[in-house]
């Protein structure tokens, strides 16, 4: 499992990411979207940095989509 989503320095608005929504934490189902806001203030979080996507969904980053 990648840890790049655990570091705030790796995430910025406009980046395409996969997140786990609160309702999907049990299943681990990922949702893809574009980062609008970073909601975690600390530089590292063990479960992933919390973000708000452009469509308004909120979750923790599990992976960053590289093009």
TrEMBL record:
Pfam families in UniProt: DUF2196 (PF09962)
The protein, known as: Uncharacterized protein
UniProt organism field: Bacillus canaveralius
């Amino acid at each position: 499992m990648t840890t790049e989503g655990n570091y705030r320095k790796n995430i910025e608005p406009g980046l395409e990411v996969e997140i786990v929504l609160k309702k999907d934490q049990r299943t681990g189902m990922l949702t893809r979207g574009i980062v609008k806001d970073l909601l975690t203030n600390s530089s590292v979080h063990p479960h992933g940095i919390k973000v708000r996507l452009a469509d308004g969904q909120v979750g923790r980053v599990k992976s960053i989509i590289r093009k």
